[in-house]
TrEMBL record:
Top-level taxonomic group: Eukaryota
SUPFAM superfamilies referenced in this protein's UniProt entry, alphabetically: FAD/NAD(P)-binding domain
Lineage of the organism: Eukaryota, Fungi, Dikarya, Ascomycota, Pezizomycotina
Pfam families named in the record: DAO (PF01266)
Residue intervals of the FAD dependent oxidoreductase domain: 18-375
Protein name: Related to oxidoreductase
PANTHER family to which the protein is assigned, alphabetical: FAD DEPENDENT OXIDOREDUCTASE DOMAIN-CONTAINING PROTEIN-RELATED, SARCOSINE DEHYDROGENASE-RELATED
A Gene Ontology cellular-component term: cytoplasm
Source species of the chain: Phialocephala subalpina
Length: 405
């Protein structure tokens, strides 16, 4: 997808836009959407992307939006229950905000509100899960109203997961992220002042004395009033201060199907799943597609693609009641990289903004984070005037801390 060429011809004056967004994944395209949505004086926006539209983590992920219990627990421990409440409400509102925009913009992206079952097949994991749930009830985290703790004696039957020892349910959204982003960008191009240039890698950004920034690419340069880095794991290429903060991690995902026309098809899974095993922290997630196939991600205990294939090849047969003789097999396997969120104005770089690094769970965070960044740019307001959780604010202090978070 390429718009008209905005780049300079030799000796022409360097072209210009109000806002330059680097990266055409969900972060970049959602920021553009919120900058333009319901805006009577829309800014001129250029998106530059190294490869084709949505080639990074967004185009590779399973499309599962839900509250990440482990993150809420981590934030409760590190920043207290108020911060955890802010994060959990933010994640919950994301589910509904993305569903609404998919409907409003008629995005053909298989968006479906669903019930998410976080199940544990190991007793220590189930005990930990129960402890986390009880802590959250004790801390009066008000999102808890949307969560069911399933009594252990019923978990196997309700979830269909063999030998399940513990389970929680919550509202979730499943969708096809690549389609969501490409359809949304197409809508924006149809109706507004946006120009997307693919195969155009930003090689450097310089800030000029007149307050403008100049981005250089192999196709020429462009001047911009404001710059948004939506560059995920690649951020430190331009902002070296983030090198130890946004650290890419490898994630693997698979598409599993069963033989067509089988006399004994396995039961359709009506929910999305998290599946936790031993050792503690080992977890996969599954999103059944309407056609009966399953997207399964995780395999974080394996770092190479072939061991991950072996893991996914038997996951349905081993774990789901009625799938033993299904012949389920992996027909695609892919990988990608993704770290923790840093959002807001880039410290010491006026008019430069960032939203990047989501610790492999960007889907329940990005859309409304992008809304917050767009608000900062549109209304010229500080981070605190947005609804982005405070723990995501990027600051000098945060950057100087000697930890990767
Ligand atoms: C295999 C896999 C499965 C996942 N599953 C889930 C899931 O089920 N649920 C969930 O919540 N999260 C999941 N995630 C994480 C989620 O996909 C990410 O958090 C999210 O997509 C990040 O979106 P983004 O737009 O910030 O980054 P990206 O989609 O990576 O986009 C960044 C873009 O910036 C471009 N770029 C970088 N540098 C430059 C440059 N110099 N010039 C031009 N362009 C540049 C890149 O090419 C890229 O397209 C998964 C990730 C992977 C890899």
């Amino acid at each position: 997808m390429e718009g008209h060429n905005v780049f300079s011809v030799p000796n022409a004056t360097t072209p210009y836009c109000d806002i330059l967004i680097i990266g055409a994944g969900l972060s970049g395209v959602a920021t553009a959407y919120h900058l333009l949505d319901d805006n009577p004086s829309p800014p001129s926006i250029v998106i530059l992307e190294t490869r084709q539209v949505c080639p990074g983590a967004t185009g590779r992920n399973g499309g599962h939006l839900m509250r990440v219990h482990a993150h809420i627990e981590k934030v409760t421990k590190e920043a207290g229950p108020e911060a955890a409440k802010e994060l959990s409400q933010f994640q919950a509102s994301q589910v509904h905000a993305m569903k609404r925009v998919a409907e409003k913009e008629k995005l053909d992206c298989d968006a479906l509100l669903t019930w998410y079952l976080e199940t544990s097949v190991s007793q220590p994991q189930a005990d930990e899960q129960r402890k986390v749930y009880e802590n959250q009830v004790e801390n009066n985290l008000d999102f808890i109203g949307d969560i069911n703790y399933i009594q252990p004696k019923y978990v196997e039957e309700i979830s269909g997961v063999k030998g399940a020892k513990g389970g929680l349910t919550a509202t979730a959204l499943q969708l096809w992220p690549y389609k969501f982003v490409t359809c949304l960008l197409a809508r924006l191009i149809e109706r507004s002042s946006i120009n997307a240039q693919t195969h155009t890698r930003v090689t450097s950004i310089s800030q000029c004395k007149d307050g403008f920034s100049i981005a250089s690419t192999p196709r020429g340069s462009i001047r911009a009033k404001k710059v948004v880095y939506a560059t995920n794991g690649y951020t430190s290429g331009h902002l070296p201060e983030f090198a130890k903060k946004i650290v890419p991690v490898k994630v693997t995902c698979s598409h599993i199907s069963t033989p067509k026309g089988s006399a004994n098809p396995p039961p359709h899974l009506n929910h999305t799943y998290g599946l936790s095993y031993e050792p503690l922290g080992t977890r996969d997630y599954l999103i059944p597609r309407p056609d009966g196939t399953v997207i399964c991600g995780g395999a974080r205990n394996t770092t190479l693609i072939e061991p991950a294939r072996a893991h996914f090849e038997t996951i349905m047969q081993k774990n789901f009641i009625g799938w033993e003789d299904s012949g389920a097999h992996v027909d695609y396997l892919w990988t990608g990289t993704d770290g923790w969120p840093h959002c807001g104005q880039v410290p010491s770089r006026e008019k430069h903004y960032i939203l990047a690094g989501y610790n492999v769970a960007g889907m329940p965070l990005i859309f409304l984070t992008a809304k917050g960044i767009a608000k900062m740019i549109r209304d010229d307001v500080p981070f605190e005037s947005t609804s982005i959780p405070k723990i995501f604010k990027t600051t000098e202090e945060h950057l100087k801390k000697d930890v990767t978070s």
